Amino acid sequence: MLDDRKLAVLRAIVEDYVSTHEPVGSKALVDRHNLGVSPATIRNDMAVLEEQGYIAQPHTSAGRVPTDKGYRLFVDRLSTIKPLSGAERRAIETFLANAYDLDDVVSRTVRLLAQLTRQVAVVQYPSLTRSSVRHVELVPIASERLLLVVITNTGRVEQRAIETHEPVSDEAIAHLRALLNARLDGCWLTDVPDALADLPEQVSADERALATTVLSVLLESLVEKHEEKIIIGGAANLARADLSQSLRDVLEALEEQVVLMRLLGEVGDPSSLTVRIGTENPHESLRTTSVVATGYGAGDQAVARLGVLGPTRMDYPGTMGAVRAVARYVGQILAGS
Amino acid sequence: MLDDRKLAVLRAIVEDYVSTHEPVGSKALVDRHNLGVSPATIRNDMAVLEEQGYIAQPHTSAGRVPTDKGYRLFVDRLSTIKPLSGAERRAIETFLANAYDLDDVVSRTVRLLAQLTRQVAVVQYPSLTRSSVRHVELVPIASERLLLVVITNTGRVEQRAIETHEPVSDEAIAHLRALLNARLDGCWLTDVPDALADLPEQVSADERALATTVLSVLLESLVEKHEEKIIIGGAANLARADLSQSLRDVLEALEEQVVLMRLLGEVGDPSSLTVRIGTENPHESLRTTSVVATGYGAGDQAVARLGVLGPTRMDYPGTMGAVRAVARYVGQILAGS
DNA sequence: ATTTGGCACTCTTCTCCTCTGAGTGCCAAG
DNA sequence: CTTGGCACTCAGAGGAGAAGAGTGCCAAAT
């Protein structure tokens, strides 16, 4: 249906349009790529490509621009992920290796991605579901207020204040802390509810109220409502890529956690890249943007996702290479800690 | 030098320009404000104001626009901070009261400020220097890796990974943890170095290396290098306020921690508002923006700062009212926890 | 001494027009 | 199937003109 030359023409159109940001015409194409045929032939091919919906003209007498469908074909069949240069790899490695805690890893990652791709980077904090409990701490911070701190094996620290509504003795706290640690040490977060189901019955009557309160907060914060945290960086890059959509709408969308979550998509196989192009995006305001995302994690299990967002007219091979590389290195760093 | 009417004219110019976003002419002024004089008189006054540098014309036959100096006079002498409505106050209160930990307080605050002022909000995390140590936790997360967690009385949790470069026994860790807590409980963060100066000498020889390492990380993370964390929100509002500067430059500036730090200014009296207008700003790219900031904190001591950034052409009385109100409520929340 | 109406003047901005050129589609010939 | 030729279309640049907002200044009025 589309012979090799037509595909080559589509590829050339995408590449030229991405680099020049201007509709590309038949003459320019034969000049810049040695296709061995005349502009007229290219025009015929273009007509076919347009009919099939891979390219479009902004107005009658302009060159062609790839459609979302065209980019899709390009990404799926006409391009290969472009590996980073050695220098880039080394830069990533050392930059990430210097991070000193989880927050720092994430914030460095987001900056790195933004710089490397010159686009908006989005990084999700490592999910809790794949982690296990390293330590639970219960600290009084006021007479009727406790701080619950859970430290996981991925180095993430989760904290939550607890209102006890009545004074609590230090012994009761110490006892509960010991109990929690004994029960939970090494426990997968997903198993926490089971491990603690009978906790209130295991303590003396006067500690029961406390135990129940703490338990509910713990479950809520860690399991049910593990609201994933996401940070973004390189928003300034949006301003360079003059989107046809109002920039404001895009910025607004990026401030909503929910949108960001859906943007990155489901956590899946870390070795595969998700590319969502233009209208394939879940959100209205992101119709003229594309997202390249992937999972990352310690080992081969993805614990969270990261990616970048840019205009549909982006350098897909390069972006995909950068995203993949960064995800790999972050995984290594996480596995190493 | 400037009689009352000229000041009234300046005030009217600022108010009109802020609401219309267009240079204001003499006729429009007498129409919208009942100044009781003719346009010609206003023109004379305007000529004087312009000569003194309070207003300027974008081009010869346009109305007048306030200069930075004009805004400055307006803020200092011609306007009063506009208190929020009762409904707004209640909304702030309930919105903040529902926060469940420090992170949440800060993130709610930044969203609140951005929404209330329709500008970019900037909030600094409560500083550590005014806090005291509530608890120190030392947790092994790998054979040669510890996690140091410090919980302060403001509910902030500081964490840092430590490389020990040699296996450490659980007893050594427990011992050190007990020692640290005994020494530091309730200790002001500024006093931590003194309190721990002789720590290495107090432990047995085989724990000394560990103690030294932990100590240095602790001091570094808490005292010397308490890099203040700042978060921003409402960046989308920037796009609405079409700045004459390239939006990109502003976004870029806002991504740099250092710039943000200087933007908010020195922590001072929480009851006073800092307004920095246009070129009074420390950063080149923020020449067309103004910052309204103030300190906030539990009680009457400021522990950090917050504020908003917007075009110089902003509603100063309203913005100042919102910033002040939010700062107060956040202070209450922090004091209550 | 200040205020005021009148008036000429200056610019920006909007609209309308034309012209140019890139790029196309189509056709007939190779 | 490819190619050169050619007429056609249309966005965008550039220019002229008109409109309109606003000013500065002056002489008269208060």
Detailed description of the structure:
- The structure is a homodimer of 337-residue chains.
- With 337 residues, chain A is an alpha+beta fold.
- Chain A has 3 domains: 4-76, Orthogonal Bundle (Arc Repressor Mutant, subunit A); 86-127 and 228-336, Beta-Lactamase (2-Layer Sandwich); 129-224, Enolase-like, domain 1.
- Helix content of chain A is 48%, strand content 18%.
- The first copy, chain A, contains 14 helices and 10 strands.
- The first copy, chain A, has a 5-stranded antiparallel β-sheet with strand order 7-3-10-9-8, sandwiched between helices. A 3-stranded antiparallel β-sheet of chain A has the order 4-5-6. In chain A, strands 1-2 form a two-stranded antiparallel ribbon.
- In chain A, helix 5 (86-97) packs parallel to helix 14 (316-336).
- The mean pLDDT of chain A is 86.
- Chain A binds a DNA duplex (30 and 30 nucleotides) through residues 23, 25-28, 37-41, 43-44, 46-47, 57-63.
Order of helices and strands of chain A: HHHEEHHHEEEEHHHHEHHHEEEH
Helicity range of chain A:
40-55%
Low-confidence stretches of chain A: none
What is the CATH top level name of the largest domain in chain A?
A: Alpha Beta
> What structural class do you assign from the helix and strand content of chain A?
alpha+beta
Output the radius of gyration of chain A: 26 Å
Task: Give the second-level CATH assignment, the architecture of the largest domain in chain A.
Answer: 2-Layer Sandwich
Query: What name does the CATH topology of the largest domain in chain A carry?
Result: Beta-Lactamase
Strands of the widest sheet of chain A, in order across it, are 7-3-10-9-8
DSSP summary: helix tally of chain A: 14
The chain-level mean pLDDT of chain A equals: 86
Query: How far is the first residue's CA from the last residue's CA of chain A?
Result: 52 Å
Percent in strands of chain A = 15-25%
